[in-house]
Design a protein that fits this description.
The protein has 332 residues and is an alpha/beta fold. It is elongated and about 75 Å long. The protein starts with a strand and ends in a 17-residue tail after the last helix.
Length: 332
């Protein structure tokens, strides 16, 4: 069995809430069947603060094996690096001190959510709490544990980024670790599991026909592509939200909301309203990650000139107003 300890630092608890939507009627049994023993979780465990402190001490002195330390929420270093803004109840000791010590004895360490990975929402604006991620401070390697940190199992911090995380991203990663099937090659350049980070939110988006013809939504509720005007970053965001649906049914874009790229460092401070696309000379600044700007401009112009009337009209409606034409065809 893999012993899992889950700590909550500076955040809203949304990743734990999301995790409870995992595709199972019995979450504890799901962990047990995967060979995972949950030592403690701030919302799911019944032990008191006294019991928790005793458990942490056992982990630190080796009496309790710590296979995986999961941290949810940003690490609050303020004020002035003291960690005094967040002390673990019943100890008077800053949470960042507990995390540093426990990370030093854990076989693996995982950051659950973008707050724990990069600082996330907790680090927005002037960041008065000096919030950071476990091994990143926004997109800069370092964070609380330092860029050179490696857990005893040899891996850096595993960044299961998202705001919140999809429950499948978490359970898949936990199960892979329990099976000894997660290697450094299974993490991308930002240390996210490639099982979801090798995809783009754009993949599987139901608005892809509108994207291809550059038929754009102009207001909330429109069916068209939300990249040109509505701030959607699905062509840049690393996640499989439109192929691994949330609660088996939806995603942000399917619900009519632009993708804000919540798995990426810095998503919390885009420098513009989330629902507006910044442009330069009428061209969106944020273009698909692997397409040269000149190509995009040329292809967009061609696409718009070839947009079918059906697609153009549907793009600015809240329901299909023109259905696909019926043609006599022979399938071969």
């Amino acid at each position: 069995m893999m012993n899992l300890l889950w700590l909550q630092s500076g955040g809203c608890g949304g990743c734990s809430m999301s995790l409870l939507c995992a595709d199972t009627a019995d979450f504890p049994a799901l962990l047990e069947s995967a060979g995972i023993r949950l030592l403690w979780h701030p919302s799911l465990s019944l032990e008191s603060d006294v019991d928790l402190i005793a458990l942490l001490e056992r982990c630190l002195d080796g009496r309790e094996r710590l296979d995986l330390l999961c941290v949810e929420g940003a690490l609050l270093r303020g004020p002035n690096g003291s960690g005094g803004f967040h002390r673990l109840a019943g100890t008077g000791v800053p949470m960042i001190a507990w995390v540093r010590r426990l990370a030093g004895v854990a076989h693996h360490v995982a950051a659950v959510g973008s707050c724990a990975a990069w600082g996330g929402i907790s680090a927005t604006g002037s960041n008065p709490t000096e919030a950071c991620g476990l091994q990143y401070d926004d997109d800069r390697a370092g964070g609380l544990l330092g860029a050179d940190f490696r857990a005893r199992g040899g891996l850096p911090v595993i960044n299961i980024a998202g705001c919140p995380t999809h429950p499948g991203w978490v359970t898949d990663t936990l199960m892979a670790l329990a099976a000894g099937a997660l290697a450094a090659s299974d993490l991308d350049a930002l240390q996210r599991p490639r099982s979801y980070a090798d995809q783009l939110v754009h993949h599987g988006c139901t608005r892809n026909e509108f994207y291809e013809f550059k038929a754009s939504a102009e207001k909330p509720s429109d069916l068209g592509c939300m990249m040109e005007h509505m701030g959607c970053k699905g062509t840049q965001a690393h996640a499989d939200c439109n192929t691994r649906l949330w609660n088996g049914e939806g995603s942000c874009t399917r619900g009519g909301y632009a993708c804000i790229s919540c798995t990426e460092p810095g998503f919390q401070d885009p420098g513009h309203p989330y629902d507006r696309t910044p442009k330069l000379a009428g061209i969106p600044i944020g273009l698909p990650t692997d397409m040269p700007k000149a190509w995009f401009v040329a292809l967009a112009s061609l696409s718009k000139s070839a947009t079918p009337r059906r697609v153009k009209q549907n793009a600015t409606a809240d329901h299909l107003v023109v259905t696909p034409a019926i043609r006599r065809t022979r399938l071969k």
